[in-house]
Structure formats: structure tokens, C-alpha cells
Specification:
It contains nine helices and 15 strands. The protein has about 325 residues and is of the alpha+beta class. The radius of gyration is 21 Å and the shape is globular.
């Protein structure tokens, strides 16, 4: 079990990836010089790529620095025994999680992450381009609330992503149900799938994709111009370990709140960070398009649309288009 101060030091190094963090700077955060040296020895022993001189430490700049060892230390541990599996290349982390579930029980909170995906899957049967530099992962959950409420979990995952990414791009917003946007460009998407493995356990596999250090200009033609990445937006690289660790820690807290109080306890917060609350919208549902005013959400995360006739419809799935 790593010492608590290891997490603080790692957090600072990852936040300033590529820069030297001085011992002095760490000391101002309540960490002693002895603890910094102890951390440096531990990092070397674990084979972590920490650079160290007599006065400072550095986590070298990388497109993809994902490491299960680092993620384990960064965990705040609300879901016990968080296990992170990592592979350089997979077809899809959602498919990988599904195969693991089919092979035997998978503990709640298990994470499947990959450096790139060859068959990344998006919502509504679309594909999801997943080159190196992006953050592609799936979290396995076994919610105790009824499946009718799981739609709310999908919105909560989107909120979690917005809350984490806002630290680096404060203008991040969620588009119903769970897309993350920076202005009119998508930066992250979430695909929640259900796996019913036995009468007793049903799993939710929550797959999250974030364009972090990959450039959106190299994405397929149909998404270029509609997508962005943190790197495109801010001009710098970020530690995938840091973003994933923050996401998992936040999701764990939000997930427990969902289990205790349901989606309704998140509604106001969701509406605040939603880019189209109170606006005219169109929702494409197969061949049909529903137009109207977005007046909010029901207790399960369904979108309430008030049509010009005054009729209020609840939408549970579909593609939302923004209209001024
Ligand atoms: C969307 O269409 O917006 C959802 C995209 C979800 C992509 C993620 S990347 C990790 C996980 N594995 C997949 O194959 N898809 C999800």
C-alpha cells in the first residue's frame, strides 16, 4: 500500500507533466523533503519514469502515460479493490469488458483502458475513432437501482466528464444525454451498455472516450470540423493518468450518490452545465424529428420537450441537434 503523500506528489508531477517540480514547491504543500526522497526511491523501485535530480522531480511529457500502477496509487478508494487493466491496442474497451464478464464475475469498479482502439464503438451504432493520445476506457458497474433508472447513470457519467475536463477547459458543457462539448465541437463521448450475465447480476459497462493529446484534425473525414481535443484547444499535452484518475475518483463519488438518491439529486447541477437548457432543440429519433423547447429533465434523465402545440414529450434516446 503506497503512502498517502505519494498520491500528492504524483498528482503534482502529472499536473505539470514535462516540467521539473522542485522539492521546495512540494514542501510548500506540506510534504517533507524526506518524503520526497522516499517517493523518488519508490518510483525508481516501481520502474516509474520519474526523472530526479538533487532539487527537483519531473514526469516526462508523453502522448500516452497510462499506467495501472500509477492509477492504483491515485485512487481514493470509494469502490474497493479498483483494478485497472491496460493494453496498448484493443478492438474496443467495451468489448474487452464484455468478454471479461462473459468469462467470469468482474468486480464492480474494474477498469479496462487502452492506448488505442481498432474498433472503437460510439452511440447509435456508430464507430469511434480512437488513435494514440486519446483516453479510451471502460468502467464496469453493477448498480443496485432498477434498470429503468440506468439512463440517469449515463447522464451522470457525462456530468462527471464535464466536471473533470472543466479544470483544463472551463467552458466544457454537456449535450444531452452525455456528449461533452467545447463550443460547437465534441471533445468526449460516452457509451453505456448493459450486460445481463445471470438472473442475479446485471452489469453496466460505461465506455468513455476523450480526445486529449490526439489532434482532431487526424480524425476521420466525417468528424473533422465537428470534434476537438484538449490539445487542440489549449496547445499543450496532458497526463492521461491524471485525467483518468480524477475521472474515476469523481465517478465513484457521483455513483454512490446516484445509488443513494437517484438521478433526481443531480438534475439541477446537470441543467447548469448543459449547453441547451431552456433552448429550442430538435431530437432525431430514427426517421422522426421532434422539435420544441428543452424545459428540463424528468427523474430518470429523460429530456422534456415542449412542442409548439403545448404538448410535453419525454425523450429517452436519440440524437439532439441544437437550434438557435
Ligand atoms: C459516442 O458516440 O459519443 C460514444 C463514444 C464512446 C467511445 C468510448 S471509447 C472507450 C469505449 N470503448 C468503445 O468502443 N467505446 C467507448
Amino acid at each position: 500500500m503506497a503512502e498517502k503523500h505519494y498520491r500528492c506528489i504524483l498528482e503534482q508531477l502529472l499536473l505539470q507533466m514535462g516540467e521539473y517540480v522542485t522539492f521546495e514547491q512540494l514542501v510548500t504543500q506540506g510534504i517533507s523533503e524526506r518524503q520526497v526522497r522516499e517517493f523518488a526511491d519508490w518510483a525508481m523501485y516501481k520502474g516509474l519514469p520519474v526523472l530526479c535530480d538533487s532539487e527537483a522531480l519531473c514526469w516526462p511529457e508523453q502522448l500516452n502515460d497510462l499506467s495501472p500502477q500509477v492509477l492504483e496509487v491515485m485512487g481514493e478508494g470509494c469502490i474497493p479493490c479498483r483494478q485497472v487493466y491496460y493494453q496498448e491496442i484493443v478492438d474496443s474497451t467495451n468489448l474487452w469488458a464484455r468478454r471479461a464478464i462473459e468469462a467470469g464475475p468482474v468486480p464492480e469498479g474494474t477498469v479496462f483502458a487502452a492506448g488505442s482502439q481498432e474498433g472503437g464503438r460510439g452511440r447509435l451504432g456508430r464507430s469511434w475513432a480512437s488513435p494514440t493520445g486519446g483516453l479510451w476506457f471502460t468502467v464496469v458497474l453493477t448498480p443496485t437501482r432498477s434498470p429503468a433508472e440506468w439512463g440517469g447513470l449515463s447522464l451522470i457519467s457525462g456530468m462527471t466528464a464535464v466536471n473533470v475536463l472543466s479544470a483544463f477547459a472551463p467552458e466544457c458543457r454537456v449535450k444531452w444525454p452525455n456528449d461533452v462539448y467545447l463550443g460547437d465541437k465534441k471533445i468526449a463521448g460516452i457509451l453505456l451498455e448493459m450486460v445481463r450475465e445471470s438472473d442475479k447480476i446485471s452489469y453496466v459497462i460505461a465506455g468513455i472516450g476523450v480526445n486529449v493529446n490526439n489532434s482532431a484534425s487526424s480524425l476521420p473525414e466525417d468528424v473533422v470540423g465537428k470534434a476537438t481535443s484538449l490539445r487542440d484547444h489549449t496547445g499543450r499535452l496532458y497526463s492521461l493518468n491524471l485525467i483518468l484518475a480524477r475521472f474515476l475518483n469523481r465517478l465513484e463519488r457521483d455513483y454512490h450518490r446516484f445509488l443513494n438518491y437517484g438521478f433526481a439529486s443531480f438534475r439541477t447541477e446537470y441543467q447548469k452545465i448543459c449547453c441547451h437548457h431552456g433552448q429550442m432543440v430538435e431530437v432525431q429519433q430514427g426517421e422522426q424529428v421532434l422539435k420544441g423547447l428543452n424545459i428540463g429533465l424528468d427523474d430518470y434523465g429523460g429530456l422534456l420537450i415542449k412542442e409548439s402545440s403545448g404538448k410535453i414529450s419525454v425523450v429517452h434516446s436519440g440524437d439532439l441537434l441544437l437550434r438557435g
